[in-house]
Design a protein that fits this description.
The structure holds two protein chains of two kinds. Chain A is of the alpha/beta class. In chain A, 22% of the residues lie in helices and 25% in strands. In chain A, strands 2-1-3-4-11-10-9-6-7 form a nine-stranded mixed β-sheet, with helices on both faces. Chain A has a two-stranded antiparallel ribbon with strand order 5-8. The chains are: A alpha/beta, B alpha+beta.
Chain lengths: 247, 932
C-alpha cells in the first residue's frame, strides 16, 4: 500500500466516484473522495494529494454543456491550486464527464486552465451510447499506460457527448492520442458502433504533452474487479499506484 | 435592473439534427432544416463578457449580442419558461456566474429559439407546441416582447371555502368533474355530511386533500372494495419467509441480503402521464420509483432499475389510431428518450429494458422498477415523535403535476389528452441525484427518523401519511416556490418532482442542514409533527386546513363492487401447415422478427447498464453484446462475491385467453429465468404490478381471479410477494369506442446467490455439447404465443403446467444440475419458444445448433416453466440413469455445432437450415424501423 493519496474529485451530479475508489483500492492505491464544495470552502486543499481523478457522471446536470459548469468553477475559483498541482508534475485522470471537465477547463490538451484546445461534442448518433468497447493503446508515453502500448483493452463506454473536436491533438501537437476505438481485429476505427461517438480518427482518449494528464471517454473503473466482464481497466490504476510508489 | 441577452449557436448541433429527423418522422415532412439558438437572459449589474466562458466553448459555439439566425430562412419560435416559473438551468447559471466573480447577476433565464425552414409560421407553432415545450410551465415568447424583470412573479388566488350544502347528487357529481376531483358520488356525499356535522364549509384545500387521499391511486379503493389489498400480504405473512424484512408496508419491499445488508424492490406505473405526454411521463415515472427506494426505511440507495412498456403496435397505420390517442410510435420513441434523460444522470444501471405491444394499450402500460440497498439497522422507519421537524428537501414547489393522483385514477378519453396534460411534468434528475448522494450520509449519521417521497398528492399525501398516527402542522408560507402564483391548495397538492419529506428530532436539524448544504441540497423546515391527531396547515395568517386524521384515513366510503364472470369470445387457432423449407423460413423469421422477440438493443443501448461498477450480467451479453440476457446480476457489496439477481416477466397476450393462468405463468416464468441462472427459489422474493381496465363487473372478476391465482401459487411454492402496485384505470374512450387494456400482470423477482461468478448465461459455450430441455414439452399449446400472434391469432387455450409439484421438481433438478456445474449455458423458455432461445444461444456465441424439432408446436410453444440447458453428455442412457432424478422430464433436443447455423432435422433428414447471420437480419430490423 502506497502512502500517496489520490483525490477523487466529485461535484453535484458526479456519479462514478465510489466505483473509481473501489478500482483504485483493488490496484493497491489509496484515495479520498473530495467534494468540490470542500475545496471551494477551503476545508481541503488539492496540494494534500499526489494525484487527482475526476470521475464520470453529469456534473451540475451537464447544464450549458457537458462538464461546463464544473470546469468554469474549477478554473475561476481554484486556478492557483490547479496550476500548482500541474507544476508539481502530479498525474490527473478524467473519465467520461471528468474528461469533458478537463477539456472544458483547458487542462487538456494544453495544461492551460482557461484555454480552449479541445471539446467533446454530441455523439454522431446524437444519442447516449452504452457499449462495451475495445481501445487500442497508442505508443505515446504516459505513466497511465506504461507497458500497455499497442495492446487492445476492453471496457464499458457510456456517454452522449464524446466526439473529440480538436486540431491540437496529434503528432507534434500539444496533445497526444492515447486511446483509439478499435474493431474486432484491433485496428483503430471510425465505424459505428465500435466507435460509439463517431470521433474522427477513432480518438477515445488523449493526454497532454507530458502524458501526466489523461482523459478518456470509456470507463476503466467498470473493468477492474473480478466480477466485471473485463479487468483491463485495472491496468490504468495499477500504473498510477506504481508511478506514485516510484522514487 | 438591466437585462442583457447573449445569443449562442453551436456548430454541428446534434440536438438540432436529432429534432429535425424526429419532426420529419412525426408530422412535419416539409421541414427542410432546423436550427436552435439558445439565449441567455441575464438580469443584474454585471460584466456580460466575463460570463462567456460559462455560455460558450469557442471551439464549437459562437456568442453574440443579437440573434445570429437569418430571419429569411424560416419562422422562428422562441420558447421560455413562464414568468412565475424558475428555469431548471437557472441555479447552474448563477453558480457559474458567482464563480466568475459576477455576483451582481440576480437572475437568469435560458430561452431556445427554433427556426423551422420549410414550414409556415402556423406549422412551426404547431410543431413546437406538440413536441418542444410544455404549456404548463413554458410559453412562446413574442418577438417584440420586452421583459420587465426576469424574476419569478405572480399573485396567488386566495383561499376559498367550498360549500356542498344543499347540492343534490347531480350537482355534486358535476362539481367533482368541473374541479378535476374525479371523486365518486359516494365520496362527495361523505364530504357533504362532514361539512354538515362540523358546521362549517371546507376550504378548497381541505376538499382537495380529501379527494386526493381517497383517489384510487393513493387509497386503492378498487382493491379494497374487492377485498384484494390484503390477499397478497396475507399469503406473504403465511409463508413467514426468513429473508423478508419488510413487505407491503413501506415505499418498497425489503429482503435480507448478506453481511447485514438489505436489498429492496419496488415497481411503479405511470400509465396516464406517459399516455398523454410520454417524455415527461416516463421521466417522472423513473424519478418517482427511484424516490420510493430513497424513501424505504430510513433511506435506501438505488442500485438498479427497469423500464417495462406496453403500447399499441408502433407500426399502426395513422388511420387506425383512436381519436385523441398519441401514436404508439411516438410513445415508444419518446419514452426511450425520457428513460435516457432521467436514469443516466441518476447513475443507476438499467437492468431490464422491455417493450411489448398489444392493441388494447391505447392507454399504455409504463412500469419501472427500482432496486435498492440499505444497511439492516436502517431498514425500518420509525413513527415521527410529536415535536419532530417536518423537513422538506430537494426542488421547489411549482404548478406542475396538480391533480396527477386524481386524474390518473380516472379513465382516459380523447379529450383528457388536451385537458390533463397539465398533470405531466418534466423531471430534473440533477436535483434528485443531489439528494440521492446526501440521504445515505444523513441516514448513517442517525439523523433520519422517517423519510418518504413526494409523489402523487405532493405535500398533502406525504405529510398526511407520515403524520397519520400523530398529527401534523404545516406552515405553507415556508414552502419554497418556483411559481409565485400558487394558491394554498396548490402548494399542498403540487406534484412537483424531486422532493422528499423527512421527520427529524428538532435537536438534530442543524447537523442535517450542514450535511445538506455540503451536497447543495435545498432544505426547509415546513412544520412539525404533533399530538393533535389533526392535519393542520396555515398560510398567510389563515388556517387553511384543519381535518381530523381519523376522518382523512378512515371515512373514505368503499362501495361494494359487483362481480360477474366475463364471457370470453375466444376462437381456436387455425394455423397453416408448416412443411416446406419456405414455410419453415417464413414461420421462423416471423417469430424472430416479432416485436416481442426482436432485438431491442437499439433502445437499451441508450441507457447506462454498467454505472456503479456493480453490474455482472447486464441486459445484453454474448459475443457482440447484443444478445438479450433475460436476467440481471450484480454484485452490490464491493469486494464481496455475493450476487443479486433480478428478472421480469410480462406477457400481454396470455391475459386475453385466461387472466388467472396468465398471472400464474408470469410468476413461474420470472422465477424460472432466475432458477436457470442458478438462483435458489427459496432465496427469492416477488414484486407484482397489475394493470386492468376501469372497473366493471367483468373486470372485477378477472382482477379477483388473477390476485387469488398468484396468492395461492405464492403460498404453494413458498416464494413471497413483498411489494406491488395496482392500477385499475386502463380504459381509453374515444368517439364512442372503448378500448380496454388486456388483463396485465408484470412480475419481477429478486434473489440472492452467495457467489455471483457462478451465474449461468444463455449463449452457447462449446460445439459438441448437447442441448437439453428440462421441463414439460409434450402437451404444447400455441394459444397466446408469439407464433400465433404472427398469424394475427390469439387462440383459446394456453399451455400451462398446472401441477405445481412438477414445476418444483424441475426447479429442484435445475438447481441440483447447477450445483454440480452440469450445464454451461441455460435459459428459461418464454415468448418465441425454443426457436428464439436457440437463435439467441447461437447469436450470442458465434456457434450453431442442430436440433430434432419437427413441428411448430415443439419449436414455437412457449413452455413456461421449462428451460434449455447445454450439457456435456457422452452417453445419454448412462447420464439419464445416473443424473436425471425420477419424475423430471429431460429431453435431448440436439447439439451445439461449430458452424453458425440453425438446423432443424428429423434424424438425418434436414428439414430446414439457415445461417444465423441471415436470421439476425429479421431479428434486428423490427425495432430499429420503429424507433429510427
Amino acid at each position: 500500500m502506497s502512502s500517496a493519496v489520490t483525490a477523487i474529485l466529485y461535484a453535484p451530479g458526479t456519479n462514478c466516484h465510489e466505483e473509481t475508489a473501489a478500482a483504485l483500492e483493488r490496484a493497491g492505491g489509496r484515495s479520498e473522495l473530495v467534494l468540490l464544495h470542500d475545496l471551494l470552502e477551503g476545508a481541503l486543499k488539492l496540494s494534500r494529494y499526489q494525484a487527482a481523478i475526476i470521475p464520470g457522471g453529469f456534473s451540475y446536470g451537464d447544464h450549458l454543456g457537458a462538464g461546463r459548469v464544473f470546469a468554469t468553477v474549477l478554473v475561476a475559483q481554484l486556478r492557483e491550486q490547479l496550476t500548482e498541482f500541474l507544476e508539481a508534475a502530479k498525474p490527473m485522470l478524467g473519465v467520461c464527464n471528468g474528461f469533458q471537465v478537463l477539456t472544458e477547463a483547458g487542462i487538456l490538451p494544453g495544461r492551460a486552465p482557461g484555454g480552449h484546445g479541445a471539446a467533446l461534442i454530441e455523439n454522431e448518433s446524437s444519442r447516449f451510447e452504452d457499449r462495451m468497447v475495445r481501445l487500442l493503446v497508442s505508443e505515446e508515453s504516459s505513466p497511465w499506460t506504461a507497458g500497455l502500448s499497442c495492446r487492445v483493452l476492453q471496457m464499458p463506454s457510456a456517454h452522449g457527448e464524446g466526439r473529440l473536436l480538436s486540431d491540437r491533438v496529434g503528432p507534434d501537437c500539444e496533445g497526444r492520442v492515447v486511446f483509439r476505438y478499435a474493431d474486432s481485429d484491433g485496428r483503430a476505427t471510425e465505424a459505428y458502433p465500435e466507435n460509439p461517438s463517431g470521433a474522427p480518427g477513432g480518438v477515445a482518449g488523449i493526454a497532454d504533452r507530458t502524458g501526466l494528464v489523461l482523459g478518456l471517454m470509456p470507463h476503466p473503473e467498470r473493468a477492474s474487479l473480478p466480477v466485471h466482464e473485463s479487468q483491463d481497466g485495472l491496468e490504468l490504476f495499477r500504473n498510477l499506484t506504481r508511478w506514485l510508489r516510484s522514487p | 435592473m438591466a437585462i442583457f441577452a447573449i445569443y449562442t449557436v453551436s456548430r454541428d448541433d446534434a440536438e438540432a439534427r436529432n429534432w429535425l429527423g424526429f419532426l420529419r418522422r412525426h408530422g412535419c415532412p416539409a421541414l427542410s432544416d432546423l436550427a436552435i439558438e439558445r439565449v441567455f437572459w441575464l438580469e443584474g449589474a454585471l460584466d456580460v463578457r466575463s460570463l462567456l466562458p460559462l455560455v460558450v466553448n469557442p471551439l464549437y459555439q459562437t456568442a453574440a449580442e443579437h440573434s445570429m439566425l437569418d430571419p429569411g430562412r424560416g419562422p422562428i419560435v422562441e420558447i421560455v419558461y413562464r414568468p412565475a416559473v424558475t428555469d431548471p438551468e437557472t441555479p447552474s447559471i448563477l453558480t457559474g456566474a458567482r464563480a466568475l466573480g459576477q455576483s451582481g447577476l440576480e437572475f437568469a433565464r435560458l430561452s431556445r429559439r427554433y427556426q423551422f425552414a420549410g414550414l409556415s409560421r402556423a406549422e412551426a407553432h404547431k410543431a413546437a407546441s406538440r413536441f418542444l415545450y410544455n404549456p404548463v410551465v413554458q410559453r412562446v415568447r413574442e418577438p417584440d416582447e420586452v421583459w420587465g424583470t426576469l424574476r419569478p412573479s405572480g399573485q396567488p388566488d386566495p383561499v376559498r371555502s367550498v360549500t356542498l350544502a344543499g347540492l343534490d347528487d347531480e350537482a355534486l357529481s358535476a362539481l367533482s368533474r368541473e374541479r378535476s376531483w374525479y371523486a365518486p358520488l359516494a365520496q362527495m356525499k361523505v364530504i357533504q355530511a362532514h361539512e354538515a356535522a362540523r358546521g362549517r364549509a371546507h376550504t378548497d384545500a381541505e376538499i382537495e386533500i380529501l379527494v386526493q387521499s381517497w383517489s384510487d391511486h393513493c387509497y386503492h379503493t378498487t382493491w379494497k372494495s374487492l377485498g384484494l389489498l390484503k390477499r397478497l400480504s396475507q399469503a406473504t405473512a403465511a409463508i413467514n419467509h426468513p429473508l423478508v424484512v419488510s413487505a407491503f408496508k413501506d415505499n418498497a419491499g425489503g429482503m435480507e441480503f448478506y453481511d447485514g445488508w438489505v436489498v429492496t424492490i419496488k415497481g411503479e406505473t405511470h400509465n396516464f402521464p406517459t399516455a398523454i405526454a410520454p417524455f415527461g411521463g416516463i421521466s417522472t415515472k423513473h424519478g418517482g420509483v427511484i424516490r420510493d427506494t430513497l424513501g424505504f426505511g430510513k433511506g435506501a440507495y438505488p442500485i438498479g432499475g427497469s423500464t417495462v412498456m406496453g403500447t399499441m403496435d408502433p407500426r399502426l397505420a395513422d388511420a387506425d389510431l383512436p381519436a385523441g390517442a398519441l401514436h404508439p410510435r411516438l410513445i415508444v420513441s419518446e419514452s426511450i428518450r425520457g428513460t435516457a434523460y432521467y436514469v443516466n444522470p441518476m447513475g443507476i444501471p438499467m437492468l431490464h429494458p422491455v417493450y411489448r405491444i398489444h392493441p388494447g394499450y391505447a392507454k399504455c402500460f409504463a412500469l419501472g422498477h427500482s432496486i435498492g440497498l440499505i444497511p439492516r439497522e436502517y431498514a425500518l422507519k420509525e413513527t415521527p415523535h410529536p415535536g419532530d421537524v417536518a423537513l422538506l428537501i430537494g426542488g421547489d414547489t411549482g404548478r406542475d403535476g396538480i391533480h396527477g393522483a386524481t386524474a390518473s385514477s380516472a379513465s382516459m378519453t380523447g379529450e383528457t389528452l388536451a385537458r390533463e396534460s397539465a398533470a405531466v411534468q418534466i423531471g430534473h434528475p440533477i436535483t434528485e441525484r443531489k439528494f440521492a448522494t446526501a440521504i445515505p450520509v444523513l441516514r448513517d449519521a442517525g439523523l433520519i427518523r422517517s423519510i418518504t417521497d413526494l409523489g402523487a398528492g405532493g405535500i398533502s399525501s406525504a405529510a398526511g401519511e407520515m403524520g397519520a398516527e400523530t398529527g401534523v402542522g404545516l406552515d405553507l408560507d415556508r414552502v419554497p416556490l418556483k411559481d409565485r402564483s400558487l394558491a394554498a391548495w396548490e402548494i399542498l397538492l403540487s406534484e412537483s418532482q424531486e422532493r422528499m419529506l423527512l421527520a427529524m428530532a428538532p435537536e438534530r436539524v442543524a447537523e442535517a442542514e450542514a450535511i445538506l448544504d455540503r451536497f447543495e441540497v435545498a432544505h426547509t423546515a415546513i412544520g412539525h409533527f404533533s399530538d393533535s391527531g389533526r392535519f393542520q396547515a396555515a398560510w398567510r395568517g389563515q388556517e387553511v386546513v384543519d381535518v381530523e386524521m381519523s376522518f382523512l384515513w378512515s371515512a373514505c366510503p368503499i362501495e361494494p363492487t359487483p362481480v360477474a364472470e366475463p364471457e370470453r369470445r375466444l376462437e381456436p387457432l387455425h394455423l397453416p401447415m408448416v412443411e416446406t423449407r419456405e414455410e419453415w423460413s417464413r414461420a421462423i423469421h416471423g417469430v424472430l422478427g416479432h416485436f416481442h422477440c426482436a432485438d431491442q438493443s437499439v433502445a437499451g443501448a441508450r441507457f447506462d447498464s454498467t454505472v456503479q461498477g456493480r453490474t455482472v450480467v447486464g441486459p445484453y451479453g454474448g459475443k457482440n453484446h447484443r444478445m438479450p440476457t433475460n436476467i440481471a446480476a450484480s454484485a452490490p457489496l464491493r469486494g464481496k462475491p455475493y450476487g443479486l439477481v433480478t428478472t421480469v416477466a410480462f406477457n400481454p397476450f396470455y391475459g386475453d385467453i385466461d387472466p388467472a393462468a396468465m398471472a400464474r405463468m408470469m410468476v413461474i416464468e420470472a422465477i424460472t429465468k432466475a432458477v436457470v441462472a442458478g438462483v435458489d427459489y427459496r432465496e427469492m422474493v416477488l414484486c407484482d404490478n397489475f394493470y386492468t381496465p376501469r372497473l366493471r363487473p367483468e373486470v372485477a372478476w378477472d382482477l379477483k381471479e388473477m390476485v387469488a391465482a398468484v396468492a395461492d401459487l405464492s403460498l404453494k411454492i413458498g416464494v413471497p410477494f413483498i411489494s406491488g402496485k395496482d392500477s385499475s384505470s386502463g380504459t381509453f374512450e374515444s368517439a364512442g369506442r372503448r378500448i380496454d387494456v388486456p388483463p396485465t400482470l408484470a412480475v419481477a423477482t429478486m434473489g440472492r446467490v452467495p457467489d455471483v461468478s457462478r451465474i449461468v448465461t444463455k449463449e452457447f459455450k462449446r460445439a459438441g455439447n448437447k442441448l437439453v430441455l428440462v421441463g414439460v414439452m409434450d402437451a404444447g399449446m400455441l394459444g397466446g404465443t408469439v407464433y400465433a400472434d404472427s398469424h394475427g391469432q390469439r387462440g383459446d387455450r394456453l399451455f400451462e403446467v398446472e401441477d405445481v409439484g412438477l414445476i418444483l421438481r424441475h426447479w429442484d433438478a435445475l438447481l441440483e444440475f447447477h450445483k454440480r456445474g452440469a450445464y454451461l449455458s441455460g435459459s428459461a423458455i418464454a415468448e418465441g419458444g425454443l426457436a428464439l432461445r436457440l437463435f439467441e444461444g447461437c447469436y450470442g456465441s458465434g456457434l450453431g445448433a442442430k436440433v430434432d424439432l419437427v413441428t411448430p408446436m415443439l419449436l414455437f410453444g412457449e413452455l413456461i416453466g421449462s428451460a434449455l440447458v447445454e450439457m456435456t453428455i457422452d452417453d445419454e442412457s448412462e447420464w439419464r440413469s445416473q443424473s436425471v432424478p425420477a419424475g423430471v422430464h429431460c429431453r435431448v433436443l440436439g447439439e451445439v455445432t461449430s458452424e453458425p447455423r440453425l438446423v432443424l432435422a428429423d434424424d438425418a433428414r434436414v428439414l430446414w437450415q439457415e445461417d444465423i447471420s441471415s436470421l439476425a437480419e429479421s431479428w434486428s430490423a423490427t425495432f430499429r424501423e420503429v424507433v429510427g
